[in-house]
Amino acid sequence: MANADVPAGSEVLRTFWALGDKTTQRTWVAFENGELGKRLPQTLSALGDALVALDRASSCGWGCHGGEHVLEHMLGTVVSSSSAACRLMFCGAYDEALILVRTIGETCNLLYLFALDKDAHDAWAAKSVPSQRFKVFRPKAVQERLKALGAIPPINRDTYGKLSEFTHGTKAHGPQAAFNPIGLPVFGVYQQAGPTVILNELALAVGFSGYVVHRTLGLPAEGTQLLEQTTTRLIESIGNASLSGLAPVLAQIRDSADFEKELPSEQPSSRTPKSGD
Length: 277
Ligand SMILES: [Zn+2]
Known about the structure:
With about 280 residues, the protein is an all-alpha fold. It has one domain (about 65-265). It is built from twelve helices and no strands. It has helices at about 10-30, 40-60, 70-90, 95-115, 120-125, 130-135, 140-150, 155-170, 195-210, 220-235, 245-255, 255-260. The protein is globular, with a radius of gyration of 20 Å. The termini are far apart. It binds zinc ion. Zinc ion (ZN) binds next to loops.
């Protein structure tokens, strides 16, 4: 027998989303009233500015250079997935937001590999079938290839493993396991730890996605500078609350002279900007 107090049919979704809308407003208040500290609102602001720069870079907003647009397509998925992850984070779908962060992290590691290894970029471009790409560029294989180049993967094995728990689940985890101390399999309940951890993880993946390719996209100086400035500001805003320690990655990617040396000194011919294109 139907319970009059329990919604049915499409009303179920309206009820879920109404709860999510309420939590979204609650989350905005937490960012604005200092409840989430001073640093996290700065990260949110820096994320917005970085996404604008990434969106412009991914859509040839500074002019089209032709070519395969491999990096542009990947940056486009970073922008759209980040926007969706933020929306989920605001409405209290915390585990689901982290699942998207994992996807962005995979892309971030690939972008770093392509920035360091032109052959890897060209091999990816040559394989148009996703299953063929996955065989060669599995997340673990990408991490190993970065390490073989002497680079620390921005999304390391520890972080990736933790993020994967939200994607695949574990025996010990139910839905919303990480941010649901009361154990209810629901979303839409505001919890301070949710935005705190998720925004830092998201900022890490988005910041490094843009930073590692800002000089390999063939952008004019204005675009290169804006990408560098906005992603650096985003990375520098990241707080300590995250799934794993950030210090080793920050130390190598931001400050390492080796990283500067490893970047290709010239644009690949297929990526040379075309005037009037
Ligand atoms: Zn283009």
